[in-house]
Amino acid sequence: MSIETPQDVRRFANIQALRGFAALLVVVSHLFIIEQKYSPDHILGSWVELGRVGVDLFFVISGFIMVHVAHTSLRGGRATSAFLFARMTRIYPLYWLISLILVLIYLWRPDLVFSSLGAPPNIWKSFMLFPDTRAPLLAVGWTLIHEMGFYLVFALAIFLKPRWLLGFLVCWGGVLALGQKMDVGTHSPLLQILLSPLTYEFLAGTFAGYIYHRFKGIGGRTTLAIGLVLWGATLTMLISTGHGMIDSHWGRVIHFTLPAMLSVYGLASLKSDLPKCTQVLGDWSYALYLTHVLSLSLLGRIWHNFATQNSWDNWIILPVLTLASIAAAGMVHKWAEKPMLQLAKRARAKLFP
């Protein structure tokens, strides 16, 4: 998941809006699971799980924004340390808070947390977002593990001189391709993350960011139009052929990377901004991404107590669940995430003046 601060995207209001839309897509995709689990009747088809393409959008957005950060940052070891500090203080505090809530729930009712997992996660590795063979405590944490891998490698670009950025990205792609060819990623969970095909989505975002800065966002409208057409064609093909969501990482890269890359570049290049409300949802996107599974699960259990054999309640409850998840995320953003961000900003100013 793309988890930059609002300051990082101050020039890209439309990218912030896209981040909010991507988070909402992920929420909608999980409504399918909630309905299947808690309602005797169903109105959502498996095609709804295609909303998980929001994750692919997040990865491309992250790459795009990181190039912007690289273009506006100083260079050297101190700048690299500041970069990693900023990324970690953006990811960990809220993630730790939500994970701690899950641990407390586990101590109270273990069946409510690990019921869908084959084996309990390693709590330490989950909290630290270390790669592991088991799923993390917070289900969506797997994407944050990938994000941390992206950032650790990209930190080298902050250390290098700006003119070496493109060469660094090309070399990164080459090493990734070589690692895939040699099947090195199967040797350890860490290598599996660093050499994951999903890294190509992040790299696609970095190349989109590089082209944006190199050519000042030229051809944005045309690029966005092509991206939307590709999205429409890809999703229509997957739905019409009955494939639904693609689970393999290579499948996601092949189907979703190009339309996501073109959409991100196109939206960033638009001269006008999308409505303010969409940008607000973008501000809430990280909180929404981390909390929506908890929100939906809690409300789904309540719904289960009065769900009827008729589908009329589904038409009412599913939108209510979505809006309630967004509202909960807004409160978490206001009362937890924003204070954490402000504290981290002050700490960064003192450590890296």
Helix content: over 70%
Main sheet makeup? none
Query: How would you classify the helix and strand content by structural class?
Result: mainly alpha
Unreliable runs: 6-10
Work out the radius of gyration: 20 Å
The domain count comes to 1
Q: Mean of residue pLDDT?
A: 92
SSE order in H/E notation? HHHHHHHHHHHHHH
Taken from the alpha-carbon principal axes, the silhouette is: globular
SS field, number of helical segments: 14
Span of the ends, CA to CA: 29 Å
Strand content: under 5%
Number of DSSP-assigned strands: 0
Written account of the structure:
The chain has 14 helices and no strands. The protein is mostly helical and 353 residues long. Mean pLDDT is 92; it is low at 6-10. The protein has one domain.
Can you give me a brief rundown of this structure?
By secondary structure, the protein is mainly alpha-helical.
SSE layout and pairings?
Blueprint: H1 13-38, H2 53-72, H3 77-108, H4 111-114, H5 123-128, H6 141-159, H7 165-182, H8 189-194, H9 199-215, H10 220-240, H11 249-269, H12 276-283, H13 285-304, H14 312-351
Helix pairs in contact: 1-2, 1-12, 1-13, 1-14, 2-6, 2-9, 2-11, 3-6, 3-14, 7-9, 9-11, 10-11, 13-14
